[in-house]
Amino acid sequence: MSKGATTPHPGEDATRSYYDSGDVDAFYGTVWGGDDIHTGIYLHEQEPIGDASRRTVERLADRLAGSLGPDRSVLDLGSGYGGTARYLAERFGCRVVALNLSAAQNERHRRTNAERGLDDLIEVVTGSFHEVPFADSHFDAVCSLEALCHSTDRSRALSEAVRVLKPGGTLAFTDVMADEDTPSEVLRPAVSRLGVDELATVTFYRRRLAELGLQDVVFDDHSEQLVNHYDRLTEETGKREAQLRDIISQDYVDHLLANLPLWADASRRRQLRWGILGGHRPR
Fold first, then answer.
1. Cα 246 from Cα 244, distance rounded (Å)
2. Which partner for 248 in 23, 38, 52, 53 could form a disulfide, CB atoms 3.0-4.6 Å apart?
């Protein structure tokens, strides 16, 4: 590691508090499955959310496959409960560093790793993707799944991701983004739950990755998945409302029931984009 503690980046305290919340933990565990908490790639409309979310992890891992193996390492930015880290460690036999702000999520992540016999391959680090605590050119691959949407400085986060990537290494990430023609204020009622004022766009990410010197920058567009994903979340939350009200606060349930349909509506209006972005650092 090359960096010590730094001053929290703007917005990180809100993100940390959100994911340290018992309400959020119980919601993701009950509705989403509690392991992979990402936008899903669905084979059919009623597929379980957790199964579709795992498919997203698999597709992203396919993008990293040329850079990973038993003697390689990967950094997972915003690693959540660790589903991606465990999948990568099991599939490739690689070492994984899982960097995440939430101490509560990280504690659960470590317990699950130990239960599955993976704690020798996965190091869970509490920290920020705005100040990655590792040296330049440290990792063979870097990934992230729907974490950058929480950032108030995505340019800095991408710069850090590329900084710690070895020459020849691969960066791949997913994010929920705004459509290029959608004003930020239109989406603000929905995105307020993320602790930010606006989402990035595909154009922003592609431009920034090119500025950082990445080659073969591509965007695998899966925006068509968003309508079904947010419809499924809205449906499952409604079906499990009574159960959720027994285990999380009434205010949080009310907020979910009001907020999730906003995401579904924005998806239906094609105001959102989603998919897998990334590229390679030149040798």
1. 5
2. 23
Structure tokens at 186: 């239109």
**pLDDT at position 14, please?**
59
Instruction: List pLDDT tens digits, range 209-235.
Output: 999 999 999 999 999 999 999 999 999
pTM of the shown model: 0.92
Q: Which residues pair with 96 in a beta bridge?
A: 74, 122
Q: Is 275 exposed, middle or buried (0-12, 13-18, 19+ CB in 10 A)?
A: buried
Cα(237)–Cα(23) distance, integer angstroms: 13
Please check whether residue 226 is in contact with residue 40, taking contact to mean a CB–CB distance below 8 angstroms: no
| Strand positions, DSSP E, 209-271 | 215-221
* Residue-level pLDDT at 19: 64
3-state secondary structure of 255: helix
Do strands 165-178 and 139-145 pair parallel, antiparallel, or not at all (unpaired)?
parallel
Residue 272 to residue 30: CA distance in whole angstroms: 26
Residue 22 scores a pLDDT above 90? no
Q: What is the C-alpha to C-alpha distance for residues 140 and 169, in angstroms, rounded to an integer?
A: 5
pLDDT digits (tens, 9 = 90+) for 87-96: 999 999 999 9
Cα–Cα distance measured from residue 133 to residue 129, given in angstroms and rounded to the nearest whole number: 9
Count other Cβ atoms within 10 Å, centred on residue 2: 10
Return the bridge partners of 272, or none: 178
Given this model, what pLDDT does residue 256 score?
Answer: 92
Distance CA 9, CA 151 (A): 9
Decide the pairing of beta strands 95-100 and 73-77.
Answer: parallel
